[in-house]
């Protein structure tokens, strides 16, 4: 990824009409990003329509406060991210979470992932969260570099999590969303 990359991408809340494209991006991203980290037979059987159905159901009748955003480049959905309140029991109520962020492999390296990450991190801050967490597969070095460049850091919490039927190791990253001088006094 070059430092002089000029990114022109629209990031907006997802609509029901985006579900098919989100399902396609979801599968393509996983099949590329997690090859060698998840079983090949699992990755090879992922179905875009199955993921599209899940996202469509969430967009029609959300069962959680998670918000879904899409990155659109040249009128095509090329990425998505989902954010909301942190789900971990060991974090305060003023902590938000990046649940998922995926980008079509065809646009990797163009800065669109950084732009999407920045936009949804800003959204978490706008929702009033003062800190945020995310979970990442330790071997996903590409994602970890993007997170670290954006100010996220490993907080030494690990878990094994079941993700769509596959158990994967994960590590948690954290990031302050507001400067310490702007944080509420909690003494």
Please, could you describe this protein's structure?
The chain is α+β, with helices and mostly antiparallel strands and 187 residues long. The protein has one domain: Aminopeptidase. It contains 5 helices and 7 strands. It has helices at 19-33, 40-44, 48-60, 112-126, 141-149; strands spanning 10-13, 67-73, 76-85, 95-103, 131-136, 153-163, 166-176. The protein has a 7-stranded mixed beta sheet with strand order 1-2-3-4-5-7-6. A hairpin with a 2-residue loop joins β2 and β3. α1 crosses α3 (48-60). The longest helix is centred in the N-terminal third of the chain and has 15 residues, at 19-33. Residues 180-187 have low confidence and may be disordered.
Q: What is the mean pLDDT?
A: 90
What name does CATH use for the topology? Aminopeptidase
**What kind of sheet is the major sheet?**
7 strands, mixed
Residue share in helices? 25-40%
Our measurement of the CA-to-CA distance between the termini, rounded to an integer number of angstroms, reads 43 Å
User: What is the tally of helical segments?
Assistant: 5
Low-pLDDT parts are: 180-187
């Amino acid at each position: 990824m070059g430092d002089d990359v000029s990114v022109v991408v629209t990031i907006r809340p997802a609509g029901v009409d985006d579900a098919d494209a989100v399902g396609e991006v979801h599968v393509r991203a996983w099949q590329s990003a997690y090859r060698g980290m998840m079983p090949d037979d699992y990755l090879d059987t992922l179905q875009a329509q199955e993921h599209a159905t899940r996202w469509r159901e969430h967009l029609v009748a959300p069962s959680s406060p998670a918000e879904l955003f899409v990155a659109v480049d040249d009128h095509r959905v090329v990425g998505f991210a989902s954010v909301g309140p942190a789900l971990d029991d060991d974090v305060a109520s003023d902590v938000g979470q990046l649940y998922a962020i995926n980008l079509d492999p065809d646009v990797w390296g163009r800065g669109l992932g950084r732009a999407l990450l920045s936009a949804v991190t800003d959204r978490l801050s706008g929702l009033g969260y003062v800190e945020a967490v995310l979970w990442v597969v330790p071997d996903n070095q590409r994602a970890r570099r993007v997170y670290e460049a954006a100010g996220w850091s490993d907080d030494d919490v690990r878990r094994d999590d079941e993700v769509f039927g596959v158990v994967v190791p994960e590590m948690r990253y954290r990031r302050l969303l507001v400067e310490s001088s702007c944080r509420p006094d909690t003494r």
